[in-house]
Design goal:
Elements: H1 7-11, E1 27-28, H2 40-49, H3 63-73, E2 80-83, H4 85-97, E3 103-107, H5 113-120, E4 124-128, E5 148-151, H6 163-172, E6 178-181, E7 202-207, E8 220-224, H7 226-239, H8 246-257, H9 259-282, E9 294-297, H10 304-313, E10 316-317, E11 319-320, E12 330-333, H11 337-355
Parallel strand pairs: 1-10, 3-4, 5-6, 6-7
Antiparallel strand pairs: 2-8, 7-8, 9-12, 11-12
């Protein structure tokens, strides 16, 4: 610990992303990336934008991207904010809506960046326990609080909360900002964006990293009441007026316009998720229904951590969380059919080896 660190930095426990080892070629099923490439329109747009204009600052208003998102979701441009990945948008949200000493609510099993931001910005929080099947109890969010954050579908469980449940939470917390983090919504859920004109306390946050195959471009956005968006812009322009570069702006706009490709790749991921879930259930796994581009699976014939290690030895990366309630599960991103077939075959082989004692 450095003597130069601030008190805040000394106390925080930073977010730990999925490992990305470079010692060999892996089947990478640990960071929830889309297994399919970006839209061809995205590649074309980036190539056209990679010219001498890169010497100039990008548009600080991100006009073309904001317009594309607004058109797609049928909202006004004043209801859209864009940032450098949804993580940055969430961080700005903490600064825009929650004060030091406020007490906000989010599930005890969810995206682990939330407590990092809480500690960074000195916002107190209560962890709300999920049910035995990882379901979110709507009634648990009707108590006194200063704000709420819900990942929907949740991570790492993949569980989806209905729009009716979200409405109930919004109506009971009209004086608090409720953030719905929809990083995975396009793989099986209905977005809450349709509620923003009815609830001024709702901010919906999304990313282009997952369903639009742009994890490498870092594009996130939020949709909400104009007052909420203005708050985000005030924070952004107090930190960095140019959060998105020229290439990201054109890539994001192109991705939003190619709806046929978007629907095609999302459908492929969903179809693969469903057969993989059934295949793993046949191998003795408990696999809660997922609405995301990953599954949360608990093996019964081998310890989850041991399986995680043995899969890595065979060149397959999945995510293991050594945490209470979920240490018996693996989070497995959905890859191509070929990659998921390789995963299932490796799991079957490892389990057979364990049963026979390696004979």
């Amino acid at each position: 610990m450095s003597k130069y660190w601030s008190d805040v930095v000394k106390k925080i426990q930073p977010y730990v992303p999925g490992e990305q080892p470079k010692d060999q070629k892996y089947i990478k099923l640990n960071t929830n990336e889309n297994p399919y490439p970006p839209s061809p329109l995205v590649i074309e747009a980036i190539k056209k934008a990679a010219d001498e204009a890169l010497r100039l600052y990008p548009d600080p208003l991100c006009t073309s991207l904001v317009s594309s998102i607004a058109d797609y979701y049928h909202v006004s441009k004043k209801q859209v904010f864009v940032g450098n990945g949804s993580d940055e948008v969430l961080a700005f949200g903490f600064l825009a809506y929650y004060n030091q000493g406020d007490r906000i609510l989010y599930p005890d099993i969810t995206y682990s960046f939330y407590p990092v931001y809480s500690n960074m910005f000195q916002v107190d929080y209560d962890l709300v326990a999920l049910g035995s099947g990882f379901e979110l109890g709507v009634e648990d969010y009707l108590k006194k609080n200063d704000g709420i954050i819900i990942a929907n579908p949740n991570a790492p469980t993949g569980k989806l909360l209905s729009l009716e449940g979200i409405k109930t939470i919004l109506e009971a917390n009209m004086d608090q900002v409720v953030i719905i983090d929809e990083a995975y919504i396009d793989f099986g859920g209905e977005s809450a964006v349709g509620l923003v004109n009815s609830y001024s306390n709702l901010l919906v946050v999304q990313t282009m990293s997952k369903s639009r195959s742009l994890a490498g471009m870092r594009i996130g956005f939020a949709i909400g009441h104009e007052d909420l968006i203005d708050g985000l812009n005030r924070v952004k322009n107090s930190i960095n007026s140019y959060t998105l570069d020229r290439l990201a702006l054109v890539a994001g706009a192109a991705a939003m316009k190619d709806q046929d490709y978007f629907q095609e790749t999302c459908s492929k991921v969903i179809e693969t998720r469903e057969w993989v879930s059934k295949r793993l259930e046949g191998l003795g796994f408990e696999v809660p229904r997922s609405s995301a581009n990953f599954i949360f699976a608990a093996p019964s014939r081998i310890d989850a951590e041991e399986l995680f290690i043995k899969l890595k030895e065979q060149g397959i990366l999945v995510r293991y969380f050594n945490q209470p309630k979920i240490s018996g599960y693996l989070r497995i991103s959905i890859g191509t059919d070929q990659e998921m077939t390789a995963l299932c075959e490796a799991v079957a082989g490892i389990q057979e080896s364990v049963v026979t004692g390696g004979q």
